[in-house]
Amino acid sequence: MSERILTHNLGYPRIGPNRELKRATEAFWAGRRGAGALEQTGRELRAAAWRRQREAGIDLIPSNDFSFYDQILDLSCLLGNVPRRFGWDGGPIGLNLYFRIARGGHSGDCGCGGIAAAGEMTKWFDTNYHYIVPEFTKETCFRLSGTKPFDEFREALALGIRTKPVLVGPLTYLHLGKAEDGLDRLSLLDGLVDVYAEILGGLAHEGAEWVQIDEPILGLDLAPAWRTAFDAAYARLRAAAPGLRIILATYFGALHENLELAAGLPVDALHLDLARASELDAVLGLLPAEKALSLGVVDGRNVWRNDFVVSRALIERAQQHGGRLFAAPSCSLLHVPVSLEREPGLGANLRGWLAFADEKLREVVTLAQMVNGEGDPVEVYKNQVAIQSRRASGLIHRPLVKARAVEVKREDAERGSPFSVRRRKQRETLGLPAFPTTTIGSFPQTEELRSSRARWRKHELSNADYERILEEEIAAVVRRQEELGIDVLVHGEAERNDMVEYFGEQLEGFAFTANGWVQSYGSRCVKPPVIFGDVSRPAPMTVRWSQYAQSLTERPMKGMLTGPITVLQWSFVRDDQPRRETARQIALALRDEVLDLEAAGIGVIQIDEPALREGLPLRRADWPEYLDWATEAFRLTAAGVRDETQIHTHMCYCEFNDIIASIAALDADVISIETSRSNMELLGAFTDFAYLNEIGPGVYDIHSPRVPTTDEMVGLLRKAAAVLPTENLWVNPDCGLKTRGWQETLEALRNMVEAARRLRRELA
Length: 764
Fold this sequence. Notes:
By secondary structure, this protein is of the alpha/beta class.
């Protein structure tokens, strides 16, 4: 008889079922709660998560997957890798310093007495989660500087749960960081492995039996030196704690040429993401008999119910090969909402098609029980009824939508004239000064505004009263921008709860949860729509508010839309058709909105695509196909307008070098990008490429509460003007201002406008 299949989980959502972590963290930042209260909330959330996983029947439950902000920042602090500008004295890293690294700000509490810029933030592989980028210099010296993994293991053990501590692996940590002055990051590996060895020894001493080490970079195209570095590093880690069993976890994609490397490393188990890669047969031919195989058969990135027939077949195929097996989600469940229990408002059909984190854990356990001969046949029957119901549902398929997408022609995705012609006409129409100022779209949303929206949703506020409140807010935003002297205005997006959810609520083919929150970064949580069917636009979505705002001013007013790829990436997307088909449907729906905005007198339209880069497949060989349909979707959205209508787009937190040709292929008249955290380093891609269209490099970081000075912004603009034609430059923040307070926003924008004026005088 085959050995019993065990279950494990790679990570659990940390925000809490009611976003308790968000509220506690923001109360700490605001000074309403102390560090002790926040730490107590953390303990309660961890304990609840461990208990829920135990109740679901998971055999190996993770610890050290919790974070107050970001797991990579946690690891940097654990390793003593704190950038010098924060003035760390080598002592304990408290919450104040921890959050200062994440958010920037005054640094008096850590001894340096000045202002320190926040750590750079970027996307975690191809997800919508952001991590704080580790920084490395020639002086970087790692040392064990915290006790978090040990503390959390002991916490769980006190509850009677012997957890499996989780660590991001040393090679992945180095690979995801940034080095100055051409430093070879691998030169730091020996010292880093020393500290990892100390951590593993400490966990073994505490009583840990298993540890999970995540090396998702094994799903990337790695240079030979990085591939070679794995063997020696893991031989040392193996020797550091011989009695501690190691699960090497890979996820988010296929290993391809790294599969043999991963299978041969001196670890006790290898985890594969079988939701995103079909490499089971290959690994079965490579894995030594003594090494366990963890099968990630339940998709940890999407919300669709698992097909037990398909997953069971995979497990049984592996079982026939022999060896010890684990069943697991494909990756950490950080990327999905906590539980369907809080979604009574979803229709019965749709609810039956979905699985969130808690449901996915039960799916893992049920699959293991089925293969172990302990399962209930009724569960399989119920599962297959739901799977067949979704496939046959008339809610999903709309023939007219499919026909319109099929009929798209190449010229539908091309502007009528080249940029040089459009630019001349737009300058004549708009009459803007040099270094024109604008913002990215959203302005602060006060508690009163959010409360009004909540009351309106509960039908406690009439449509007329709610619209009056919105009109008053928009009028105030327009007036403030005119007083500041901003050149191209926005209406502030007072009516919008989220840049994707707002549009999805008005499109056919989307569904919405009441509490389906996932973490994007820090305390920022989003509630992604669920794209379950063919997408179309039944009526205009934004025209009413943009037209009203334009009526209040003589200055140009930008219409604000979220682009098709960002809507796609920041939603839970149907998995029953190629993503490119869904993207084209979204693009056609948004194209209708763009044309309606233009017809309503809006001469500047911004189509945000911050998620274009994160949608890239992990392997470069797969990039051309994705970039082809992704850029086509943007152009299809924008290309129907007249030459005089200026199309903007916005992107943030990505390596533009990778996709600069595709950014140019978008053919947007103006692109605004995040550059403040990187000190304008990201502009190198645009200068090397000789990017011809106009560009607005962000001159201050809106994710930090600190207000930058005019001198700082002038310094950044001078850097930009030194490498780009000055006539191409716009002046703007690096992202929307929705999450900021009004006082800091007005101060920062006042400084920004003055910086633009100073540059006009200097470079007139």
